[in-house]
């Protein structure tokens, strides 16, 4: 009996030792595998298979749709030759040290038409003597400038190739803060690159980048070389043309700006049709209304755009606009700030009458104005 008890105690001791070792080193061996009924889902995947659930969180579809239409742009500009470059005495004393290499630049662009039209930034191709476009499939072609619009920093190029991939222009007015977007371009010349982020803000103005500003702000990484590239939504539709970044180092800091398609579509159509963009002009000097200006001009309004100056013999003066008028509407469009007034006036067709609603001390009046043609280097509003 004593022998059986000794055997039992030794067996229990060994089993306890084994249990302790397993519990310390492999505790999962001691737990029962959960059954399907015991798993509580943290999100609803009813009707979605595993593959679909993985694809739903991927942006590869948008990248595949949009990337073929995004091109790399290389520009070159011949250096200026000194006036006495062919003088033998000049060469004798200075040699050939004054001969400079051509200036080169890199950027991106987006094919928006099967006919070969490409949207890019004006600053990418400005003053370039030669523009070369490289497609994602490896094809290369020289491009010619169809037209530029420095006031929005947009340019339209054209290449003579067939079977071109084309991006679909989306509705940038439907974007909301928080929407996921992709930035596609050729940063630093490393090759086509796709980055992702969200729409950080809409309608950014008064940044001092362009005359007409209505930027989409995004935290998708945008770097030098991305200028002129595409900002697309999760469907691969073009939402904007990447233009500028806020940076203290020269690289991305999560604050990038793109020109929305609501602007690029208008500029593209005007340049392809007319070779340039024609905008309206009134000849006024507007300012954002504040308490000091309201008191000075005797205005009863607390906000809006007040006219502080009217150009003599300009369209506004001929229509009867005068300093102290607060413009509330232009052709039925409500005016809330100076940027809005600038955009509304620019959209007017020169020579075609438009209605301008103003508020004065003696009440509201509707004036009929015949806008002139805006000269980017001269008149402004």
Verbal overview:
It is a single chain. The protein contains nine helices and 21 strands. The strands form four sheets. Strands 5-4-1-2-3-7-6 form a seven-stranded antiparallel sheet. A six-stranded antiparallel beta barrel has the order 8-9-10-13-12-11. The protein folds into three domains: 63-158, Trypsin-like serine proteases (Thrombin, subunit H, Beta Barrel), CATH 2.40.10; 172-274, Beta Barrel (Thrombin, subunit H), CATH 2.40.10; 280-373, Roll (Pdz3 Domain), CATH 2.30.42.10. The longest helix is centred in the N-terminal third of the chain and has 24 residues, at 2-25. The chain is of the alpha+beta class and 381 residues long. 22% of the residues lie in helices and 30% in strands.
Low confidence ranges: 32-56
* Overall number of structural domains: 3
Name of the CATH class of the largest domain: Mainly Beta
- The CATH architecture term of the largest domain is Beta Barrel
| H-E order | HHHEHEEHEEEEEEEEEEHEEHEHEEHEEE
Cα Rg: 32 Å
What class would the helix/strand composition place it in? alpha+beta
Could you tell me the strand content as a percent range? 25-35%
Task: Kindly state the percentage of residues in helix.
Answer: 10-25%
Shape descriptor reads extended
Cα distance, first to last residue?
A: 113 Å
Q: In the CATH hierarchy, what is the superfamily of the largest domain?
A: Trypsin-like serine proteases
* Tally of DSSP helical segments: 9
What's the overall average pLDDT, rounded?
80
CATH fold type of the largest domain = Thrombin, subunit H
Summarize the biggest pleated sheet: 7 strands, antiparallel
> Which strands sit side by side, in order, in the main sheet?
5-4-1-2-3-7-6
DSSP, total strands: 21
């Amino acid at each position: 009996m004593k022998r059986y008890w000794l055997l039992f105690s030794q067996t229990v001791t060994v089993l306890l030792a084994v249990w302790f070792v397993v519990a310390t080193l492999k505790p999962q061996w001691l737990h029962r595998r959960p059954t399907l009924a015991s798993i509580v889902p943290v999100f609803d995947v009813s009707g979605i298979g595993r593959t679909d659930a993985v694809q739903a969180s991927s942006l590869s579809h948008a990248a595949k749709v949009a990337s073929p239409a995004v091109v790399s742009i290389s520009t070159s500009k011949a250096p200026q030759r000194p006036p006495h470059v062919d003088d033998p005495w000049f060469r004798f004393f200075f040699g050939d040290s004054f001969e400079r290499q051509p200036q080169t630049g890199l950027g991106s662009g987006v094919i928006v038409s099967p006919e070969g039209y490409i949207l890019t930034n004006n600053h990418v191709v400005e003053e370039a003597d030669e523009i070369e476009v490289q497609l994602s499939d490896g094809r290369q072609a020289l491009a010619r400038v169809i037209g530029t619009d420095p006031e929005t920093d947009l340019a339209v190029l054209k290449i003579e190739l067939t079977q071109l991939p084309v991006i679909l222009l989306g509705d940038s007015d439907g974007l909301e803060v928080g929407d996921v977007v992709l930035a596609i371009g050729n940063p630093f010349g490393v090759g086509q690159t796709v980055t992702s982020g969200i729409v950080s803000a809409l309608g950014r103005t008064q940044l001092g980048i362009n005359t007409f500003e209505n930027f989409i702000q995004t935290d998708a990484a945008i770097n030098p070389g991305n200028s002129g590239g595409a900002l697309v939504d999760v469907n691969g539709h073009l939402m904007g043309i990447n233009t500028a970044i806020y940076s203290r180092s020269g690289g991305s800091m999560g604050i990038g700006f793109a020109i929305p398609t609501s602007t690029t579509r208008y500029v593209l159509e005007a340049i392809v049709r007319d070779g340039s963009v024609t905008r309206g002009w009134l000849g006024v000097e507007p300012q954002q209304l504040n308490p000091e200006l309201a008191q000075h001009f005797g205005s009863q309004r607390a906000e809006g755009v007040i006219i502080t100056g009217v150009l003599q013999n300009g369209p506004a003066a001929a229509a009867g606009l005068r300093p102290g008028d607060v413009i509330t509407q232009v052709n039925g469009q409500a005016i809330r700030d100076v940027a809005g007034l600038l955009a509304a006036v620019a959209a007017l067709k020169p020579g075609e009458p438009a209605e301008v609603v103003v508020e004065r001390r003696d009440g509201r009046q509707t004036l009929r104005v015949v806008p002139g043609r805006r000269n980017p280097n001269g008149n402004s509003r």
